[in-house]
Amino acid sequence: MRDSCESNNRGAFTGRSTAATLLGMADDSMIDDNQETEALAVWQTLSRLRSARPLVHCVTNAVAMDLTANLLLAAGASPVMAHAKEEVEEVASAAAALCINIGTLDGPSAEAMYLAAKAAVESGVPWLLDPVGVGATSFRREIAERLSHLQPSVIRGNASEITALSQETGGGHGVDATIESWDALDAAQDLARKCGTVVAVTGSIDYVTNGHDMTAIANGSEMMGRVTAVGCALSALTAACLAVQEDPMRATVHALVIMGVAGEFAAERAVAPGSFRSALVDAIYLLDEATLVKAVRIG
């Protein structure tokens, strides 16, 4: 992953040209007052997260639970991994935010996800849907579509997942994207308008839209794609930001910046994917205001 603290109306938004502009912001000379303002807003969200320590309920996949829990703890949140249908409604209602990830989906987990999401909506708890591999099978599509109609605050996925969920072509093999993030912008806007939500498309450039406004972020490292569950952990971090930032679009953008900058920081210190995984958790924990102001690339 490599999107803005303010929701800017882009009109004829060109993802590829914006990507080139953002990727060119590699040195301090490119940092302007707007970038610094945006970075300070991200820092305020991270600071609130660290002080509030919100309870984040994660109904997530088996592959992602360890990294997700550790990354949330490093960011300052308090994760709870409750999956049983007998308790998810109670936990979701008491949480500050909910993250639902369909990565390792089966019948019982699908039922628990539906119960948790419904309870969150009824209790006014913000929640995020991560439609992992939604284009791979009709079962995943059915569950993801059903969940998307339960008023998620945010839907986050890669380009193929967002395109598939918007009922266009996209597919993908497994959980991997087969198209670039900017190729899914129309699908993301359509999905956001249809579901009344914020949609984040993550990739080499990340995009966030509410169906009308669009922002982009160019922070991140290629190493993030070499470690499983980084995207899943990002979804949980976004849910955590929803707990302390009332505007879902701003919360989503801030989470993407935090993870992206941390990914760059970690990649500088890691020698391979194994060490990168540990370095990423450390980077989230150590992230400070000066690092954000220097590194953020938002457009």
Automatic annotation (TrEMBL):
Single GO MF annotation: hydroxyethylthiazole kinase activity
Co-factor(s): Mg(2+)
Record's catalysed reaction(s): 5-(2-hydroxyethyl)-4-methylthiazole + ATP = 4-methyl-5-(2-phosphooxyethyl)-thiazole + ADP + H(+)
UniProt-annotated binding residues for substrate: 81, 229
Function according to Swiss-Prot or TrEMBL: Catalyzes the phosphorylation of the hydroxyl group of 4-methyl-5-beta-hydroxyethylthiazole (THZ).
Keywords assigned: ATP-binding, Kinase, Magnesium, Metal-binding, Nucleotide-binding, Thiamine biosynthesis, Transferase
Presence of the UniProt keyword Metal-binding in the record: yes
Species of provenance: Limibacillus halophilus
Binding site for ATP: 156, 202
Pathway where it operates: Cofactor biosynthesis; thiamine diphosphate biosynthesis; 4-methyl-5-(2-phosphoethyl)-thiazole from 5-(2-hydroxyethyl)-4-methylthiazole: step 1/1
GO biological processes: thiamine biosynthetic process; thiamine diphosphate biosynthetic process
Family: Belongs to the Thz kinase family.
Name by which UniProt lists this protein: Hydroxyethylthiazole kinase
Organism superkingdom: Bacteria
SUPFAM superfamilies, sorted: Ribokinase-like (SSF53613)
EC number: 2.7.1.50
